[in-house]
Design goal:
Order of helices and strands: HHHEHHEHHEHHH
Number of strands: 3
Strand order of the largest sheet: 1-2-3
Number of helices: 10
Structural class: mainly alpha
Oligomer: single chain
Distance between the termini: 51 Å
Largest sheet: 3 strands, parallel
Helix content: 25-40%
Strand content: 5-15%
Shape: globular
Length: 244
Amino acid sequence: MGDSITQQSSRTFAARLQDAYIRRLDVINRGFSGYNTSHALIVLSKIVPKPAEANLRFVTIFFGANDACLEGTPTNQHVSLYNYGENLINIMTDPLIRDHKPHVILITPTPVDERLMEKNADNSTGPGERLRTAENTRRYAKHARELGRKYTHYNVAVLDLWTIFMTKAGWKEGEPLPGRRDVDENPVLKKLLHDGLHFNPEAYELLFEELMKLIKVTWPDQDPEQLPYVLPSWEIAPKIANPI
């Protein structure tokens, strides 16, 4: 579950997951453009089935891009850092989720590129209006990372996509933060983020690769190659005896 970054992944990341787990698990995209964690809590009962209806083996939680909008900006998507953390905890620990005893993957919000966002800004937000900054998004990513690591007893693993992207961009702690408007343009971020926020196919591929690595290391028995087909191969599958 997530926001527009999840919603827009159907032809890339979600499709790759479907292919990896074909005939083993169904992959359902529950991405909602513009949503933040406060929205997610309201709709949780509408998007999470009861165990009698379906069993969730994995749940990905990928919010934060909209929560990290600056306070007072016209889209009204901002969620305070404290409430963002509380909302994530409430999602992870909600009985609707816990009843499934799933493997939960908390994905941190990813870096943003302020120049690209401003270049592609919707005119409705006003000229020069900044909705997000690289530094503020970094704070939300750090909070999600630290929070998720405190909930491993809930079978939660953290995919620190912010750090993965920044490492790919060549950034090291203590250096000027790529994505800031007063820092030289970073060609890697430009390649990953087509408008400074949303993913290019290269970013979705990186997300897929890192997610599969995390599953293999954290829950090796859930690697696709370790899971049996739900229905047997055709050679041994039962079939009706057709009359001559």
